[in-house]
Amino acid sequence: MKKIYTGKTKDVYELENGNYMLQFKDDMTGENGVFDPGANTVGAHIEGIGRENLRVSVKFFEMLNAAGIKTHYVSADIDNATMEVLPAKPFGKGLEVICRYRAVGSFIRRYGAYIEDGAKLPAYVEMTIKDDDRGDPLITKEGLEVLGIMTGEQFDAIVKATKEITAIVAAEVEKAGAEFYDIKFEFGFNGQEVILIDEIASGNMRAYKDGKTLEPMDLTALLLK
Ligand SMILES: Nc1ncnc2c1ncn2[C@@H]1O[C@H](COP(=O)(O)OP(=O)(O)O)[C@@H](O)[C@H]1O
Ligand SMILES: [Mg+2]
Fold it and tell me: Could you tell me if 145 and 151 are in contact, meaning their C-beta atoms sit under 8 angstroms apart?
Protein backbone atom coordinates (compact mmCIF):
# COMPACT_ATOMS: atom_id res chain seq x y z
CA MET A 1 0.00 0.00 0.00
CA LYS A 2 1.53 3.29 -1.13
CA LYS A 3 0.72 6.68 0.37
CA ILE A 4 0.08 9.08 -2.48
CA TYR A 5 -1.26 12.18 -0.74
CA THR A 6 -1.22 13.75 2.71
CA GLY A 7 -4.27 15.98 3.11
CA LYS A 8 -5.57 18.21 5.85
CA THR A 9 -8.24 15.78 7.08
CA LYS A 10 -7.42 12.57 5.17
CA ASP A 11 -4.46 10.68 3.75
CA VAL A 12 -4.75 8.82 0.45
CA TYR A 13 -3.22 5.39 -0.29
CA GLU A 14 -3.12 3.32 -3.46
CA LEU A 15 -4.33 -0.26 -2.94
CA GLU A 16 -3.02 -3.39 -4.71
CA ASN A 17 -6.31 -3.71 -6.62
CA GLY A 18 -5.87 -0.22 -8.11
CA ASN A 19 -8.49 1.44 -5.90
CA TYR A 20 -7.62 4.16 -3.41
CA MET A 21 -8.01 4.11 0.36
CA LEU A 22 -8.89 7.26 2.27
CA GLN A 23 -7.63 7.32 5.86
CA PHE A 24 -9.83 9.70 7.86
CA LYS A 25 -7.85 11.66 10.46
CA ASP A 26 -8.99 13.30 13.69
CA ASP A 27 -8.47 16.77 12.21
CA MET A 28 -10.99 19.41 11.15
CA THR A 29 -10.47 22.47 8.96
CA GLY A 30 -10.68 25.81 10.73
CA GLU A 31 -8.58 28.40 12.49
CA ASN A 32 -7.47 28.67 16.12
CA GLY A 33 -9.72 25.86 17.30
CA VAL A 34 -12.78 27.29 15.54
CA PHE A 35 -14.33 25.05 12.89
CA ASP A 36 -14.75 26.50 9.38
CA PRO A 37 -15.61 24.21 6.42
CA GLY A 38 -14.15 26.84 4.06
CA ALA A 39 -10.78 27.07 5.81
CA ASN A 40 -7.52 25.87 4.25
CA THR A 41 -5.84 25.04 7.53
CA VAL A 42 -6.34 22.39 10.16
CA GLY A 43 -8.08 24.21 13.01
CA ALA A 44 -8.87 21.52 15.50
CA HIS A 45 -7.86 18.01 16.50
CA ILE A 46 -10.82 16.10 17.94
CA GLU A 47 -10.32 12.54 19.16
CA GLY A 48 -12.49 10.09 17.20
CA ILE A 49 -13.83 12.62 14.70
CA GLY A 50 -12.25 10.76 11.76
CA ARG A 51 -14.33 7.67 12.43
CA GLU A 52 -17.46 9.78 12.92
CA ASN A 53 -16.84 11.64 9.65
CA LEU A 54 -16.47 8.31 7.90
CA ARG A 55 -19.76 7.05 9.42
CA VAL A 56 -21.62 10.11 8.15
CA SER A 57 -19.98 9.83 4.72
CA VAL A 58 -20.93 6.16 4.41
CA LYS A 59 -24.54 6.98 5.33
CA PHE A 60 -24.76 9.61 2.59
CA PHE A 61 -22.84 7.67 -0.09
CA GLU A 62 -25.16 4.70 0.44
CA MET A 63 -28.21 6.97 0.13
CA LEU A 64 -26.81 8.49 -3.08
CA ASN A 65 -25.98 5.10 -4.57
CA ALA A 66 -29.56 3.98 -3.78
CA ALA A 67 -30.80 7.12 -5.58
CA GLY A 68 -28.77 6.15 -8.68
CA ILE A 69 -26.15 8.89 -8.28
CA LYS A 70 -22.63 7.75 -9.20
CA THR A 71 -20.03 8.11 -6.43
CA HIS A 72 -16.53 6.78 -5.72
CA TYR A 73 -17.67 4.80 -2.67
CA VAL A 74 -16.74 1.09 -2.60
CA SER A 75 -16.63 0.03 1.07
CA ALA A 76 -15.63 1.19 4.53
CA ASP A 77 -13.82 -0.11 7.60
CA ILE A 78 -15.25 2.03 10.42
CA ASP A 79 -12.92 0.73 13.16
CA ASN A 80 -9.84 1.70 11.18
CA ALA A 81 -11.46 4.88 9.80
CA THR A 82 -10.73 3.92 6.21
CA MET A 83 -12.84 4.03 3.05
CA GLU A 84 -12.04 2.21 -0.18
CA VAL A 85 -12.93 4.31 -3.23
CA LEU A 86 -12.66 4.29 -7.00
CA PRO A 87 -9.63 6.32 -8.09
CA ALA A 88 -10.53 9.60 -9.70
CA LYS A 89 -8.68 12.31 -11.59
CA PRO A 90 -9.50 15.80 -10.35
CA PHE A 91 -10.65 18.70 -12.52
CA GLY A 92 -7.48 20.76 -12.95
CA LYS A 93 -5.57 20.68 -9.67
CA GLY A 94 -8.82 20.09 -7.78
CA LEU A 95 -12.18 21.82 -7.72
CA GLU A 96 -14.69 22.43 -4.97
CA VAL A 97 -18.39 22.75 -5.67
CA ILE A 98 -20.49 24.62 -3.15
CA CYS A 99 -24.27 24.57 -2.87
CA ARG A 100 -25.92 27.24 -0.76
CA TYR A 101 -29.43 27.27 0.71
CA ARG A 102 -28.58 30.20 2.99
CA ALA A 103 -26.14 33.12 2.69
CA VAL A 104 -23.24 32.62 5.12
CA GLY A 105 -19.44 32.30 5.16
CA SER A 106 -17.56 33.46 2.08
CA PHE A 107 -20.83 34.33 0.32
CA ILE A 108 -21.49 37.04 2.93
CA ARG A 109 -17.84 38.14 2.89
CA ARG A 110 -18.19 38.73 -0.85
CA TYR A 111 -21.75 39.91 -1.23
CA GLY A 112 -22.68 41.18 2.23
CA ALA A 113 -23.53 44.60 0.78
CA TYR A 114 -26.42 43.00 -1.12
CA ILE A 115 -27.83 40.30 1.13
CA GLU A 116 -28.42 39.68 4.80
CA ASP A 117 -26.57 37.06 6.78
CA GLY A 118 -28.65 33.87 6.74
CA ALA A 119 -31.00 34.93 3.93
CA LYS A 120 -32.44 32.11 1.80
CA LEU A 121 -30.77 31.21 -1.51
CA PRO A 122 -32.25 28.98 -4.25
CA ALA A 123 -29.76 26.06 -4.10
CA TYR A 124 -27.10 28.44 -5.45
CA VAL A 125 -24.11 26.55 -6.87
CA GLU A 126 -20.63 28.03 -7.21
CA MET A 127 -17.18 26.56 -7.79
CA THR A 128 -13.73 27.37 -6.43
CA ILE A 129 -10.40 25.99 -7.60
CA LYS A 130 -8.27 24.33 -4.92
CA ASP A 131 -5.28 26.66 -4.57
CA ASP A 132 -4.27 27.31 -0.95
CA ASP A 133 -1.75 30.02 -1.92
CA ARG A 134 -4.44 31.99 -3.74
CA GLY A 135 -7.19 31.39 -1.20
CA ASP A 136 -9.24 29.00 -3.37
CA PRO A 137 -10.51 31.57 -5.89
CA LEU A 138 -14.08 31.47 -7.17
CA ILE A 139 -14.30 30.50 -10.85
CA THR A 140 -17.03 30.98 -13.45
CA LYS A 141 -18.24 28.54 -16.11
CA GLU A 142 -16.42 30.63 -18.75
CA GLY A 143 -13.26 30.67 -16.61
CA LEU A 144 -13.30 26.88 -16.35
CA GLU A 145 -13.73 26.60 -20.13
CA VAL A 146 -11.00 29.16 -20.94
CA LEU A 147 -8.53 27.43 -18.60
CA GLY A 148 -9.38 24.03 -20.11
CA ILE A 149 -10.52 22.67 -16.74
CA MET A 150 -13.96 21.55 -17.96
CA THR A 151 -16.43 21.98 -20.78
CA GLY A 152 -19.65 23.94 -20.52
CA GLU A 153 -21.62 20.68 -20.73
CA GLN A 154 -19.62 19.19 -17.86
CA PHE A 155 -20.23 22.34 -15.84
CA ASP A 156 -24.00 22.14 -16.38
CA ALA A 157 -24.05 18.43 -15.52
CA ILE A 158 -22.12 19.02 -12.27
CA VAL A 159 -24.44 21.87 -11.25
CA LYS A 160 -27.44 19.60 -11.82
CA ALA A 161 -25.91 16.67 -9.90
CA THR A 162 -24.86 19.01 -7.07
CA LYS A 163 -28.44 20.24 -6.63
CA GLU A 164 -29.75 16.65 -6.55
CA ILE A 165 -27.12 15.51 -4.04
CA THR A 166 -27.62 18.57 -1.85
CA ALA A 167 -31.39 18.01 -1.78
CA ILE A 168 -30.80 14.51 -0.37
CA VAL A 169 -28.33 15.73 2.26
CA ALA A 170 -30.44 18.77 3.20
CA ALA A 171 -33.55 16.61 3.68
CA GLU A 172 -31.58 14.37 6.05
CA VAL A 173 -30.25 17.36 8.01
CA GLU A 174 -33.77 18.79 8.35
CA LYS A 175 -35.06 15.35 9.40
CA ALA A 176 -32.42 15.35 12.14
CA GLY A 177 -33.91 18.61 13.45
CA ALA A 178 -31.38 21.13 12.10
CA GLU A 179 -31.49 23.75 9.40
CA PHE A 180 -29.30 23.17 6.37
CA TYR A 181 -27.21 26.17 5.21
CA ASP A 182 -24.48 25.10 2.77
CA ILE A 183 -22.20 22.28 1.67
CA LYS A 184 -19.01 21.64 -0.29
CA PHE A 185 -18.38 18.70 -2.63
CA GLU A 186 -15.64 17.41 -4.91
CA PHE A 187 -16.11 15.63 -8.23
CA GLY A 188 -13.59 13.80 -10.40
CA PHE A 189 -13.18 11.59 -13.44
CA ASN A 190 -13.30 7.82 -13.13
CA GLY A 191 -12.44 6.93 -16.73
CA GLN A 192 -14.79 9.06 -18.82
CA GLU A 193 -17.38 9.27 -16.08
CA VAL A 194 -17.73 12.21 -13.69
CA ILE A 195 -18.43 10.97 -10.16
CA LEU A 196 -18.78 12.43 -6.69
CA ILE A 197 -15.57 11.88 -4.68
CA ASP A 198 -14.05 12.78 -1.31
CA GLU A 199 -16.36 12.86 1.74
CA ILE A 200 -19.78 14.10 2.82
CA ALA A 201 -19.36 14.78 6.53
CA SER A 202 -20.32 17.44 9.04
CA GLY A 203 -17.02 19.20 8.34
CA ASN A 204 -18.12 19.86 4.76
CA MET A 205 -21.37 21.59 5.58
CA ARG A 206 -23.00 24.14 7.83
CA ALA A 207 -26.22 23.53 9.68
CA TYR A 208 -27.95 25.64 12.30
CA LYS A 209 -30.13 24.84 15.28
CA ASP A 210 -31.98 27.45 17.35
CA GLY A 211 -30.33 30.19 15.28
CA LYS A 212 -26.78 29.02 16.06
CA THR A 213 -24.28 27.16 13.90
CA LEU A 214 -23.93 23.52 14.97
CA GLU A 215 -20.45 22.31 15.84
CA PRO A 216 -19.46 19.37 13.57
CA MET A 217 -19.54 16.88 16.47
CA ASP A 218 -23.08 17.95 17.40
CA LEU A 219 -24.31 17.78 13.79
CA THR A 220 -22.70 14.35 13.45
CA ALA A 221 -24.48 13.13 16.58
CA LEU A 222 -27.83 14.34 15.19
CA LEU A 223 -27.20 12.72 11.79
CA LEU A 224 -26.21 9.35 13.29
CA LYS A 225 -29.06 9.20 15.80
N1 LIG B 1 -11.78 8.94 -5.31
C2 LIG B 1 -10.74 9.79 -5.22
N3 LIG B 1 -9.74 9.71 -6.12
C4 LIG B 1 -8.68 10.57 -6.05
N5 LIG B 1 -8.54 11.52 -5.12
C6 LIG B 1 -9.52 11.63 -4.20
C7 LIG B 1 -10.66 10.78 -4.20
N8 LIG B 1 -11.47 11.15 -3.16
C9 LIG B 1 -10.85 12.18 -2.57
N10 LIG B 1 -9.69 12.48 -3.17
C11 LIG B 1 -8.72 13.52 -2.78
O12 LIG B 1 -8.09 13.09 -1.60
C13 LIG B 1 -7.77 14.19 -0.78
C14 LIG B 1 -8.41 13.95 0.58
O15 LIG B 1 -7.71 14.53 1.61
P16 LIG B 1 -8.12 15.90 2.29
O17 LIG B 1 -7.52 15.89 3.63
O18 LIG B 1 -9.58 16.18 2.19
O19 LIG B 1 -7.33 16.86 1.33
P20 LIG B 1 -7.28 18.44 1.20
O21 LIG B 1 -6.34 18.91 2.27
O22 LIG B 1 -6.73 18.61 -0.19
O23 LIG B 1 -8.71 18.92 1.36
C24 LIG B 1 -8.34 15.44 -1.47
O25 LIG B 1 -7.30 16.10 -2.15
C26 LIG B 1 -9.33 14.87 -2.47
O27 LIG B 1 -9.43 15.66 -3.62
MG1 LIG C 1 -10.56 18.04 1.85
Answer: yes
